[in-house]
Amino acid sequence: MVAFFSAEHLTMRFDGLTALDDFSLELKEGDLVGLIGPNGAGKTTAFNLITGNLHPTLGSVFFQGKEITGLKPNRIARRGIARTFQNIRLFQDLPVIENVMISYHGRLRSSFLDAVLRTPLYNREERGMREGAFSLLEKVRLSEAANDKAGSLSYGQQRRLEIARALATNPRLLLLDEPAAGMNPQETRELMDFILRVKGDFGLTVLLIEHDMRVVMGICQRIKVLDYGAAIAEGTPQEIQNDPKVITAYLGEADLA
Hints:
This protein is of the alpha/beta class. The protein is 40% helix and 23% strand. The protein has 11 helices and 10 strands. A 6-stranded mixed sheet has the order 6-7-8-3-9-10, with helices on both faces. The protein has a 4-stranded antiparallel sheet with strand order 2-1-4-5, with helices on one face. The chain is globular, with a radius of gyration of 19 Å. The N and C termini lie far apart (39 Å).
């Protein structure tokens, strides 16, 4: 049976430095998997290889039975893989709804000239974008702020908006890069509920990078651990908590407690 997603023996070298070494991962549809490790372990490099921001030195990536290794990010996004970034990348001075509408542009049939001339095709598509963006904002509970500037939202709301913008590309696989970074405990609890709800509502498979162990241990079905670019463990949260290599390399007994 063909895997829903697989990364096979991915290796990334920069001028002799190996950032990721022989990384392999398989996801079944509907999985929620965590990717953890200390800073510099290769987690974001793995995301960049999966989404086409980097081309691997060695190895391959497959999604829904087709190889996507080396494709450009926009083509990978159209295949159904979306991501967020560790640092929030919103258009702070644009309204919330327009931040979401931007993600619909990759699916438009109208041209730049159609937009300039405001042709019937462009007007229909723009109405569809706005309606779709507002519907999405309702689902992530941000519709009341649709016309507010994105920069006026709370930190937790901005994280939700960034995820909403990724959802607007209609993904099947969603990659979240440290979504809880900078959040207070209350925001973190709300984020955990939000990720689980969105995963169910949109029928997503989720791969999550996160340093906050409350999030990882609280919602992930399986966890893979990287250290110095290499995988050192993979298993359920309980198995990872009790793995001596993980305790030594990353978590520490205090964190596990």
